[in-house]
Amino acid sequence: MPLPERMRPGKVSSNKINELSKSAEMILSKIDGGSVQEDPILVTMMGEWNNQVVYPYTFSDFRDFSSWTRAREFTRMAFNLERFYPDYTWSELIQTIKFICDSEGKESEQNFALSLLERNFNGNPSDLIFWPDSWFQNPEMLHVDLSVDEIAGYLMAIHQNDE
After folding, report:
1. In this structure, how many other beta carbons lie within 10 angstroms of the beta carbon of residue 38?
2. Which domain of life does this protein belong to (predicted)?
3. Is 49 exposed, middle or buried (0-12, 13-18, 19+ CB in 10 A)?
4. Are the CB atoms for 69 and 107 separated by under 8 Å?
5. Tell me, what's the pLDDT at 131?
6. C-alpha 113: how far from its chain's center?
7. CA–CA distance from 44 to each of 38, 39, 40 (Å)?
8. Choosing a second label site near 82 at 20 to 30 A (CA), which of 4, 12, 93, 157?
9. Are residues 65 and 112 in the same domain?
10. Percentage of residues in the chain with pLDDT exceeding 90?
């Protein structure tokens, strides 16, 4: 099940993703080569890169991305800016949680969907989905397999209590 239509990240051409992925790798290479954060060439490279994306990255983002993702996914994530939806519906919440639980889409889309939940619902949605023992503060809940409806219900209950 895809993300709700109005909540999907914007489309970016594969040429732009390729171009910026190569630039991100060049920035990382410069950092790995010993450039410091204040290096004028590095500052210019990062500035040019950040001027082309929705979500700008910092020195530490460029320095560390290769430890958790590829340059292409890192670049895609820079175009995904989650919004707050005051009218987030039950069916949209179900769709978003199902998208995450079914591991649909690319890594950047999964990251976006989690960020969307985090932005719109209190109570640490990612812990509820992936680490229910932590969310419930009960070690016996580690292997509990919550349904999509149960996850949505807990998020809505927390959300309503916080309003």
Report:
1. 8
2. Bacteria
3. buried
4. yes
5. 95
6. 6
7. 10, 9, 6
8. 157
9. no
10. 75
The gap between the terminal CA atoms of the chain, to the nearest Å, is 29
Token code pair at residue 145: 């397999």
Contact status, residue 116 vs residue 82, Cβ threshold 8 Å? yes
Q: Is 73 helix (H, G, I), strand (E, B) or coil?
A: helix
Residues, the chain: 163
Tokens coding 67: 């430890």
Q: Please identify which residue in the block is written with the tokens 């619902």.
A: 121
Domain hosting residue 24, numbered range: 14-77
In the structure, what pLDDT confidence band is assigned to residue 23 with cuts at 50, 70 and 90?
very high
CA-CA distance, 32 to 154, in Å (whole number)?
Answer: 44
- pLDDT for 8 equals 86
| Block residue for tokens 């970016």 | 12
Total structural domains in the chain? 2
Please count the other Cβ atoms lying within 10 Å of the Cβ belonging to residue 4.
Answer: 18
